[in-house]
């Protein structure tokens, strides 16, 4: 329901946050200053002895300097009492003596229906738990005991049993006066197609109640005791209460455990979660029988910003991890990511705990790898990169993955990490004593010193910056000559990018004029250059790759030249600018440096370009000239 403007502000003004938080904490009166509304206490969201939890009555907010929990009075109630937003508002309104606004009739009707269905599922929980103690459940009890679940675990997770009869639960609930339509709407029974009497959905199964963040039982999961059953695990159908793609098993208790510094572990199924919690890993959740959805992933991130995904040690587990990685890439940010715990082959968390105990599981969780490592593993495992074509294909796959990351800053860090992994991988793959192959297949060691032919090349003898710019000019021109359809799209960039080399300048002029074709001899000489011949966008017809490369090369060329021009202007100004003018001039240079670092989306996805040099050059220039000016 919507609330009228000003209602929440009035509510917060009437109920001080310290009075609400004070019910859950003991104030440290040595640090607190009550007269100023300044309160300190040990944090209720994580275990600590010092008072790092701060409450400001005047602003109406709390903040923990340890676990960084923060919020207002309403959020505090939601987090500590496992309430929904409107439920917390209603509690505070009663406390403040305020009347809640009238609810929308349709919304009120839906809320009432949800409450009625939740009451039915709670009755079903009690029925299933009682059935676990009957003779019919002897096999189920033996199975649970064999999995190491004692009375405490059965109580904590409210595990029950559905007898193998068609109308056991139905008869129990209707006999208790529950309306038949509520039993069906709660997903506990189904009507047969022939119009006969409704029958229980769960029969001959161990039952696991599924609760939402507020603790309401919204559905059930059932494990069959019949090895020939069509489905080993069965969940409740979608209902008003239950949306499988928006729910997680054990979500509420896991959120509370994360507040006490437990790492959030995402496992595959019910038994994995139960085993983890019983072993001391209280913050464990699981999706409900399917691959993790985007809604579930966002729900996981609301519980913890960097959960650990515990993958079963088989091909299916690894494929599930790859699917989740692809789902997560566009949603990543500095505040939310994933780590992956790769379990031993053919083992799940329960297997690890049973064979090696909590210590073995803790070691695996502590060794969980960041998402970028799993990405690298997927693109390189079981592959051979013994040709330029295969290495180019790898680079394309990595660039495609990088382009999925929406956050440009994070994308740049991923590109840097992948660049390092790539360099280390190919260094390790190169045989010792790398050199040219001799006839007969033996390695020839490299020469002890540079050859004369090498010393005489432009790259070895000339100015590296000028040569790099010249090579970049040649790549740009070659791509445009190879893909003429892109000329109009990049015409403005080409106009701005004046060519320093005379031949390049002539080709640029011919392309911009659009009249007579460029000199064939000049084109042939350009295309014969070694770095041009091996450039992928010049070699093939992939126009998307050509477009991407042009964006990168123009951005780098123009950014470097703009920064160089700014440096020259700044140097000229140093002699006569007053101190305040110098400060402004250097600020301009610094801003240009920052712009050049953010100049292009593709630039941050480049795997082979070190862009720190330009930033460092400008930083050193600014620092040195400020020092000189101050000295004068």
Automatic annotation (TrEMBL):
Keyword Iron-sulfur: no
UniProt keyword Magnesium present: yes
Catalytic activity reported: ssDNA + n NTP = ssDNA/pppN(pN)n-1 hybrid + (n-1) diphosphate
Pfam families to which the protein is assigned, alphabetical: DNAG_N (PF08275), Toprim_4 (PF13662), Zn_ribbon_DnaG (PF01807)
Entry keyword set: DNA replication, DNA-binding, DNA-directed RNA polymerase, Magnesium, Metal-binding, Nucleotidyltransferase, Primosome, Transcription, Transferase, Zinc, Zinc-finger
Cofactor binding note of this UniProt entry: Binds 1 zinc ion per monomer.
Coiled coil feature spans: none
Needed cofactors: Zn(2+)
Zinc finger (CHC2-type): 43-67
Swiss-Prot/TrEMBL domain comment: Contains an N-terminal zinc-binding domain, a central core domain that contains the primase activity, and a C-terminal DnaB-binding domain.
Assembly and oligomerization: Monomer. Interacts with DnaB.
Family: Belongs to the DnaG primase family.
Task performed by this protein: RNA polymerase that catalyzes the synthesis of short RNA molecules used as primers for DNA polymerase during DNA replication.
Record-given protein name: DNA primase
Organism: Roseinatronobacter alkalisoli
